[in-house]
Amino acid sequence: MPPKNARAARPAFRCADCGHEVAKWVGRCPSCQAWGTVEEAAPARPALAKVSAGAPATPARPIAEVDLDSARAVSTGIGELDRVLGGGIVPGAVVLLAGEPGVGKSTLLLEVAHRWATNSARGPSLYVTGEESAGQVRLRAERTDSVHPQLYLGAESDLSAVLGHVDAVRPGLLIVDSVQTVQSPDAEGSPGGVTQVRAVTTALVALAKERGLPVVLVGHVTKDGAVAGPRVLEHLVDVVLHFEGDRHSALRMLRGVKNRFGPADEVGCFEQRDDGIAEVPDPSGLFINRQETVVDGTAVTVMVEGKRPLLVEVQALLMQTQMAMPRRSVSGLDSARVSMTLAVLGKHGKIPTSEYDVFAATVGGQRVSEPAADLAVALAIASSRKSKPLPPNLVVVGEVGLAGEIRRVNGVGRRLAEAARLGFDRALVPPDSGPLPKGVRATVVSNIGDALKIVR
């Protein structure tokens, strides 16, 4: 007869993402609905009735006596990256950089390692690659002019070998490309698995905190754009950055998702070139097409990415169709909001589009999802429908409601200041927009009918 505690001693099966426990293995977690995350775990130890006190590693001190120099950000040498990080990288911080294959993560970090190595006061930089050979990385460094005597390169996929390189080089910056290719000898599973990724990340985080060494990890992404590996990976690190870009466009956007040391909604702009990745400190010119002759079907709006206002040109084209179901094609815009704008134009603007194929897009491949671009989409569609261009040097900002009203948006003054810097001197703004900058003639529109008067 089995002992009474035999059932309690059985190993449990636990989800690596949410921690939900089940009695037997299942392919899909019943709690978070994630696939392939349930794994066998040892039974939990009974809680101790009493925990004995131990000697602290460092004595507690008044908060006013804590040294701030060890937590001050150090510039990476790349202004756009420092902008997203909140001024630079903090000693002991662990940064996770994720992005799709081929977007330029390795090229960007190789440039970061080169910029860091050029400053001898900060110590050498160590670039560890687990995906490529040392010769392949050297070829990329030659192409991007990133060769430096203080930039050390190691091709390793074993965690103990990576730690050995750190002891030998004693770098001021460690870059691991990528965390899914490094394997810990103390953990089970294959490289890239849930257990391995967690063990490797935990060891590197402990190394960073112990030595005050900034560590940058490259992470893969899944087909839906999320960071590959267990969800706890994003909780272990201090900063999570996403490097985004279309393979058909040279523009790259570095977006902050999590940042314990600065803003988590900042955006940096880069441009992919043959000789590497270059910063784009003024990206507004990439998203507008300034022509000498004005054309119909275009409107310029100002979006805000983090704290950075960006001018974006919205284009629309209407073609009469004989089909029962007109075509609606959208690129760079929210298709649901474009459909809503078409309905508002037909109901409250007296501009029906049921007999027209509608094509709407943004210039430069920039994605616009905020409601502040609704009015620009509506005027671009109306301009194409009436074959009448909007006045030159006009910028449009506002959210369109289902009742045809123009709703206020945040930061109108900051948006118009950026527009004025680029030569736009006229604007359509919603009511209660706050103080506006000088040099811009702003016209307040309260509904879609008032806004369409500028087209008619």
From TrEMBL:
ATP binds at residues 99-106. A motif (RadA KNRFG motif) lies at residues 258-262. GO terms for molecular function: ATP binding; ATP-dependent DNA damage sensor activity; damaged DNA binding; hydrolase activity; zinc ion binding. Plays a role in repairing double-strand DNA breaks, probably involving stabilizing or processing branched DNA or blocked replication forks. DNA-dependent ATPase involved in processing of recombination intermediates, plays a role in repairing DNA breaks. Stimulates the branch migration of RecA-mediated strand transfer reactions, allowing the 3' invading strand to extend heteroduplex DNA faster. Binds ssDNA in the presence of ADP but not other nucleotides, has ATPase activity that is stimulated by ssDNA and various branched DNA structures, but inhibited by SSB. Does not have RecA's homology-searching function. The gene is radA. InterPro entries: AAA+_ATPase, DNA_repair_RadA, P-loop_NTPase, RecA_ATP-bd, Ribosomal_Su5_D2-typ_SF, Ribsml_uS5_D2-typ_fold_subgr, Rubredoxin_2. This is DNA repair protein RadA. Belongs to the RecA family. RadA subfamily. PROSITE patterns: RECA_2. It comes from Saccharopolyspora hirsuta. Residues 357-456 are annotated as: Lon-protease-like. Keywords: ATP-binding, DNA damage, DNA repair, DNA-binding, Hydrolase, Metal-binding, Nucleotide-binding, Stress response, Zinc, Zinc-finger. Residues 70-221 form the RecA family profile domain. GO terms for biological process: recombinational repair. The middle region has homology to RecA with ATPase motifs including the RadA KNRFG motif, while the C-terminus is homologous to Lon protease. One of its GO terms (cellular component) is cytosol.
